[in-house]
Amino acid sequence: MKKPSFEISDFGMTKYGQKARKFTLRGKGGVVLEVSDYGGKVIRLFTPDKNGKLKDVVVGFDDPSGWDGGDPYWGCIIGRYGNRIAHGKFKIGSKTYRLPALNNAPGGIGCNLHGGARGWDAYVWGAEPFIEGDNVGVVFTHFSPDGDEGFPGKVEVKVVYTLTADNVWRVEYEACPDKTTPINMTQHVYFNFKGEAGGTIEDHILKIPAKTYLPTDSGQIPTGEIRSVVGTPFDFRRGMRIGEKINAADRDLEIGKGYDHCWVLDKGEMARGKRPRALIHAATLSCPLNGRYVEVSTSEPCIQVYTANWASYDQTAKGGEHLSFRCGCALETQHAPDSPNKPKWPTTFVKAGEKYRSVTEFRFGAC
Ligand code: BGC
Asked: What range does the domain containing 280 cover?
C-alpha cells in the first residue's frame, strides 16, 4: 500500500470570475479523488476493480465551464437547503420567508431547489488539504451571509472530504447559523461504474434497505404520506436493476420521469420526528459488468435517488465524452424534501448558535 498524498493544480475561472483549484487526493487503498474548491465539485473519482484496475466512475468536467448551466449539480456540495421547498416559502414563528421558486416540474407550482439561483455549489470555498495518519482529505469552508438567496441568518459552513485507507470517501458537514434557518446539505455526485462514456446506468443494480418512500405531487413535493414500497417499483430491498421497472406505469415514476424520489431509511424514527442516531446503510449501487460498487452509509434519515432523467443533458464531459439521458445515478443523503413545511418530520431548522452536523460515507469496492 502506498502512502496517501495530494497535489494541487489550477482548475480555471468560474463564470463568477473566481479562480478555482483542483485537489487530487490519492488514498492509501487506491481510490483517487479529484475535487475542486469550486463548490466541492467532484471532477474524477477512480475506484479499483477486483484486479486493482482503476476507472473513473463519476460524471464531471475538465474545467468550471462544464458547470455553467447550474442544474443538474454534477458532483457538487448542495446547500443551504438541498432538494425542494414548496412555493419557495416557509414560516419561522409568525414570519413567512420567501425564496426564489425557480424550479418548475411540469404541472408544478414552482419551488426552491438546492439553495436557489446561486446555491453554495456555485462559490469557490476555502480549501485546506491535509494528511492525517493513513487519511488524506480537504477541509472546505464557506460563509453564507444573512439573506443569502432569501434565507435568514448568516452561516459558517465546513465540509470535510476524507479518503481512508480502506477506500471510504467520508463527507462530514458542519454548519452554524446566527439565526434560525433551515439547513439540509448533501453531495450530488453522479456515479456510472462503466465510466461515463458507458451511457445509461439502467443496468446498474441498486439496493436500498428502506421499507418506505415519499410519494410526491406533480411538482415533486412530498404529499406527506410515508408509503410502503411493497408491490411498487420502489422496492429495492433485495437489490434490483435500475432499468427493471424505471419505465413502469406508475404515477410517481411518471412525475419524476424515472427515479427522482426520497426513500425513508427508518420509518419509525421519521414518524417520531427523529433522525437516526448512528450511521445506517442507505444504499448500494453496483455494476454487474465490472463488479465495482459503492456502499453508502449516513447519519441522515433519508436518501434521494436521482437517475438523471430531467433533460437530455446535451453536454460534453471530460475526455470529450457526450453525456446522455440517465448517464448517472446520484445517491443524495438528506432530510426529507420540504421539511420546513412538514412539522411532523425530523426538523431541518437549526437554531442560532446550534451546530448542524451530518456524515455520509461512500465505501468503494469490487467483487
Ligand atoms: C432532484 C432532481 C433535480 C436534480 C438536479 C435532484 O436532487 O431531485 O429533481 O432535477 O437534483 O437538479
From this structure: 5-366
Q: What is the pTM of this model?
A: 0.96
CATH number of the domain within which 258 lies: 2.70.98.10
Q: Does 71 contact ligand 1 (Cβ within 6 A)?
A: yes
Closest atom of ligand 1 relative to the 260 alpha carbon: 8
**Count of domains for the chain:** 1
Taking only the tens place, the pLDDT of each residue in 117-168 is 999 999 999 999 999 999 999 999 999 999 999 999 999 999 999 999 999 9
Residue with the three cell numbers 477541509: 139
Ligand 1: residue of 306, 315, 326, 332 to mutate (most ligand atoms within 8 A of CB) is 306
Q: Measure 72 CA to ligand 1 centroid, in angstroms.
A: 6
